TrEMBL record:
<keyword id="KW-0732">Signal</keyword>
<dbReference type="Pfam" id="PF13379">
    <property type="entry name" value="NMT1_2"/>
</dbReference>
<protein>
    <recommendedName>
        <fullName>ABC transporter substrate-binding protein</fullName>
    </recommendedName>
</protein>
<comment type="similarity">
    <text>Belongs to the bacterial solute-binding protein SsuA/TauA family.</text>
</comment>
<feature type="signal peptide">
    <location>
        <begin position="1"/>
        <end position="25"/>
    </location>
</feature>
<dbReference type="GO" id="GO:0042597">
    <property type="term" value="C:periplasmic space"/>
</dbReference>
Length: 341
């Protein structure tokens, strides 16, 4: 699963230039028949985003008069570039990307309006199964295969290590030079004592006997606006009715996921993961559902926002704390939570 997030100032310069061009060209949803088309760019294809696929497959967007064009944009930088250049209307990506763009300066900020996941989605995998509660001190002196620097997974990982009194650079051999797609293969071939993995790789490793989940970075790092639907402020201002309908559909999907069994959720999202074994899909859904990763509503609360910035600050990736009211608009999620049952 590729959830690399935008974390480099240089990568944003082109983004902002394209955003300016898109603003001059104008934007707005395209109508398809009587429905309004909304183009979503998701940062990756992931079971982590189950409520999104439920909203499409169960027809919740169509009930709201929306036709969804869903594209996987593969990476935070590409997702944000596509959003700001007008290639998509709504991005599903980590909230830190909206902060990175804001740090570079823009007259049309990217605004978070409907949260989908509320924890980190990675797990600590060891070569041996856990014997009781995991002792984080075991990591000291070990070789740890981590995620790429600047992305939220890496920041949440380092935040957790520091929380347990472990200095990522001094207390262990931290490897961050392996390409994201090659991390599972590197660990399976013998690199590292521990690895930070996304699903479904973690569950696949357990099934294959190549590793064992011993802890959850999602549980350890706390609630975060980890993956959120966002759009340019200009788009939201121009298409408030469409954004409200979008938030309504997401809320209905969130309600459905909260109330449904693992098997029912797996059946609903199955068409999006035909190459993944069904028992692995169920295992991943159960793991995320049990730890509360799927947000019950789209509201990004202040505590989550502050926790996100604490994580970014601890990683040295935050120039200045971003104003909540500038980059978060909860009016659509709040109305959806109140009205959608």
């Amino acid at each position: 699963m590729n959830t690399r997030r935008l974390g480099r100032a240089a990568a944003l310069m082109l983004v902002l230039v394209l955003a300016t061009c898109a603003t001059l060209a104008g934007c707005g949803p395209k109508k398809s028949g009587e429905r309004v088309q909304v183009r979503i760019g998701e940062v990756t294809r992931s079971i982590f985003y189950a409520p999104e696929y439920v909203a499409v497959e169960k027809g919740f967007f169509k009930e709201q008069g929306l036709d969804i064009e869903l594209t996987t944009t593969f990476g935070g930088d590409k997702t944000m570039t596509t959003l700001l250049s007008g290639g998509i209307d709504v991005a599903l990506v980590g909230s830190e990307t909206s902060i990175y763009v804001h740090q570079q300066g823009t007259g049309d900020p990217v605004v978070n309006f409907s949260q989908l996941t509320q924890t980190d989605g990675t797990f600590l995998v060891a070569r041996k199964p856990p014997e009781g509660p995991f002792d984080w001190n075991k990591l000291k002196g070990s070789t740890f295969l981590g995620q790429r620097k600047g992305g939220m997974p890496q920041m949440a990982g380092e935040f957790t290590l520091k929380k347990h009194g472990i200095h990522p650079q001094n207390d262990l051999n931290l490897l961050q030079n392996v390409e994201f797609a090659n991390i599972p293969t590197a660990y399976a071939s013998g690199t590292g004592d521990y690895v930070q993995l996304f699903e479904p790789q973690a569950s696949m490793f357990e099934k294959q006997g190549k590793g064992h989940v011993v802890a959850s970075f999602g549980v350890e790092s706390g609630k975060l606006p980890y993956t959120v639907f966002m759009a340019k402020k200009s788009y939201i201002d121009k298409n408030a009715d469409t954004v409200q309908k979008f938030a309504n559909a997401v809320q209905k999907a969130q309600n459905w996921v909260q109330q449904s069994s693992v098997d029912d959720i797996a059946a609903a999202i199955g068409p999006y993961f035909q190459d993944t074994e069904k028992d692995i899909v169920r295992s991943v859904i159960k793991r995320y559902k049990d730890q509360g990763s799927f947000a019950a509503d789209g509201i990004v609360d202040v505590q989550e926002w502050n926790n996100l910035q604490d994580v970014m600050e601890a990683a040295g990736e935050l120039k200045k704390r971003a104003d909540f009211n500038t980059l978060v608009n909860n009016q659509f999620a709040e109305k959806a939570k109140q009205n959608v049952k």
